[in-house]
Amino acid sequence: MLVPLYEAVYDRLGVGPGTRMLGLECGSGLALLMAAARGAAVTGCEPDEQRLALARERLLPEPQWGVPPGGRARTRLLLGTPDRLPRPVPAEPFNLVTALDPATAPGTLTPVLAAAARLAGHGAPVVLAGWGPSERCATGRVLRMTARLTEQRVRLSGRDDLEELARAAGLRPDGSGRVSCPFGYPDMDSAVRGLVSTGLFDAAVAATDQQQVDKELAEALHPYRGGDGTVRMDNVFRYVIARA
C-alpha cells in the first residue's frame, strides 16, 4: 500500500549500492526489501515479534523476492530499538535512517529517532513519514469511524507534526514531499484483512474482539466499494527529510 511512498523517497535520495540504511519500526520488511533490491545494505529494527518474523522470511532466506546476490550478508534485523545495535566503526555509519510507518505513535518514536541519529553519519538524511491532509486521506475517515471501539480520539498528522517530531529528536528538517498512496483491494474480505494487518486497528481488537472490529471495518469501508466489488481508498502521505 505504501510502495509509492517508498519509491518516492528512495528515488529522491538516490538509494542504491552505496546506501547503508537503518529502518525504524520496519514492520514486515517491505521498505527494507525494496531498498535491498536497489543494492542497499539494510538494517531493520522492529519491536513486534510477529512482524519481525515476516521481515525475516522476506529478507533472510536465500536471495529471492528481488534481493540481489549477496543481499543476505548485507541485511540485519533486530527485535527492539536501535539503542541495542553496536555502534558502527567510524568509517561505516548509516547514511540513511527511515521511519516510514505512519501508524507509529510520535511519543514512541522520538527517543528511537534520537538513538538512531547517533548511529548515523553527520548530515545523513533521516526520513519521517505520516498521513497527509485529513481531507485527502480516505483511510483516516475509516479510522475515525472505528475509533469509538476504543474511546480514543484518532488524529492524523497535523501540518507541522513531522517537523516538530524531527526537532524533538535533535534533527534539522531539510525538505519534504507528498505522495499519493491509494489503498486498493479486490474485494471486501481482502480489504478488511489488509487493513487489520497494518496494526492500525490493534487497539480496537484489544478493546473488543477481532469479529467486532472486522464487522465495523466492513461497514466503514462500504462507501469505498465499487460496483465490481473492489475497494479503493485514495490517500496522500507526507514525508520530511531531516538531517542528523
What does this structure look like?
- The protein is α/β, with parallel strands linked by helices and 244 residues long.
- It has a single domain, classed as Vaccinia Virus protein VP39 (Rossmann fold).
- The protein has 9 helices and 9 strands.
- The chain has helices at residues 3-13, 30-37, 49-59, 106-117, 138-146, 161-168, 188-197, 202-207, 210-221; strands at 20-24, 41-46, 75-79, 96-99, 125-131, 172-180, 183-185, 231-233, 236-243.
- Strands 3-2-1-4-5-9-6 form a 7-stranded mixed beta sheet, sandwiched between helices. The protein has a two-stranded antiparallel ribbon with strand order 7-8.
- Helix 4 links the parallel strand 4 (96-99) and strand 5.
- Helix 1 (3-13) packs across helix 2, helix 5 crosses helix 9 and helix 7 (188-197) crosses helix 9 (210-221).
- The protein is globular and about 55 Å long.
- Residues 63-67 have low confidence and may be disordered.
CATH architecture annotation? 3-Layer(aba) Sandwich
**Fraction of helical residues:** 25-40%
- Average pLDDT score: 87
Would you report the number of β strands? Answer: 9
Whole-number tally of structural domains:
1
Give the amount of beta strand, in percent.
15-25%
CATH class designation: Alpha Beta
The CATH superfamily is identified as: Vaccinia Virus protein VP39
H/E element sequence: HEHEHEEHEHHEEHHHEE
Helix segment tally:
9
User: Strands of the largest sheet, in order across it?
Assistant: 3-2-1-4-5-9-6
What shape does the CA trace take?
A: globular
Structural class of the helices, strands and pairings?
alpha/beta
Distance from N terminus to C terminus (CA atoms, Å) equals 28 Å
What is Rg? 18 Å
Main sheet specs: 7 strands, mixed
CATH topology: Rossmann fold
Uncertain segments: 63-67
